[in-house]
Give the backbone structure.
Amino acid sequence: MSERIVVAAALVDGGRLLAARRSAPADLAGRWELPGGKVEAGESPEAALVRELHEELGVAAEPGERVPGRWPLRAPFVLHVWTARLLPGSAAPEPLEDHDALRWLAPDRIWDVPWLDQDVPAVERVIAHLGLGAVPSPGGTAPE
Ligand SMILES: Nc1nc2c([nH]c(=O)n2[C@H]2C[C@H](O)[C@@H](COP(=O)(O)OP(=O)(O)OP(=O)(O)O)O2)c(=O)[nH]1
């Protein structure tokens, strides 16, 4: 089966990163992720990101650039991450779908939440890419 992209947002506001706690499926519930979802056939990753952020969080967001890297999820899915920001006048994010809590994490709080295991290297890369602060992950590996 060919690879399918899950696109997720490094949504940053005032130097803080938005994290979302999954409410389903059961094996992922309670763990934190970058909000996003599957890119549909014929859809660009940027369009998918804007659509998913609107559906899941009720926000109007603008994609920035892709964070270099690709992180394997359950096959055939692969995680790609894009930076994003809220457009002026956007509603504040709310956990409308797939999530039951949201947190804006300051750089020294990013590892306070239990991220999905597969998101940890992606979040490390986001921190390095955005220069959010060299806070090592609990695994002890300092971001590049
Ligand atoms: N959105 C998102 N999903 C992630 C991350 N890490 C990770 O393993 N996943 C998994 C969870 C899901 O199995 C899958 C994404 O599917 P989803 O359920 O969020 O996306 P969707 O709304 O397009 O899905 P669907 O219900 O329409 O099928 O990827 C992440 O950081 N963000």
Summary: The radius of gyration is 14 Å. The helical segments are 45-57, 120-130. The chain has a mean pLDDT of 94.
